[in-house]
């Protein structure tokens, strides 16, 4: 291989290396981050809650399981994750007819979204050298990527007052049209990381959890 060929192939090699490194870092970061928000009724004494039950009029999830008289995979995953995490919070699950302190309801959805990225890198993860023709300035404007976002909302309803006491929401990038077991567990754990609310914590704040 002559000197000119090696010179021309060097940017390509750097580009492929940059692509590999960026994709690896991006996939790990994306898979780990959950956007979390929460809000609550400041008049509620959450420490007084000891027992909980699923809200008896739970709506069907996005796969329509409960409406058909059976549990969908997503419904089963969400319920298992919530029940496990509620136990770690010291709350005991009871039947809805056993007069619990609080009811829990959820809603879940997966949506197609777009993300705008302002970067000197192109959509393939490596800088455009341009070879003196000005391509770099074109790609410095950024680019748009498409992805699927899984959103889960958990509502805590005060059983005695029949009023919403606490709401937590988590959103993360997912791989498919449904939310996998690992993704559900990660989102639920992140949401309930904000429960019980503490005085001085913002009522609605955006946070990213690993």
UniProtKB/TrEMBL annotation:
Secretion signal span: 1-31
Domain DUF4136: 36-197
Top-rank lineage group of the source organism: Bacteria
Keywords on record: Signal
UniProt protein name: DUF4136 domain-containing protein
């Amino acid at each position: 291989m002559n000197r000119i060929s090696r010179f021309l192939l060097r940017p390509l090699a750097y580009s492929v290396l940059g692509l590999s490194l960026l994709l690896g870092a991006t996939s790990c970061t994306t898979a780990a981050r959950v956007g979390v928000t929460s809000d609550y009724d400041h008049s509620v004494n959450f420490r007084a809650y000891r027992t909980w039950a699923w809200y008896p009029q739970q709506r069907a999830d996005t796969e329509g399981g409960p409406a058909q008289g059976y549990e969908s995979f997503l419904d089963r995953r969400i319920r298992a994750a919530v029940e496990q995490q509620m136990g770690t919070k010291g709350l005991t699950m009871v039947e809805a007819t056993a007069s619990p302190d609080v009811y829990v309801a959820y809603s879940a959805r997966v949506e197609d979204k777009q993300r705008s990225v302002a970067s000197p890198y192109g959509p393939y993860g490596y800088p455009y050298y341009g070879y003196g023709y000005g391509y770099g300035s074109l790609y410095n404007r950024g680019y748009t990527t498409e992805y699927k976002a899984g959103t889960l909302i958990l509502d805590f309803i005060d059983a005695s007052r029949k009023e919403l006491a606490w709401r937590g929401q988590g959103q993360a990038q997912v791989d498919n049209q449904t939310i996998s077991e690992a993704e559900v567990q990660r989102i639920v754990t992140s949401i309930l990381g904000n429960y019980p609310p503490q005085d001085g914590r913002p009522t609605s704040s955006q946070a990213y959890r690993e």
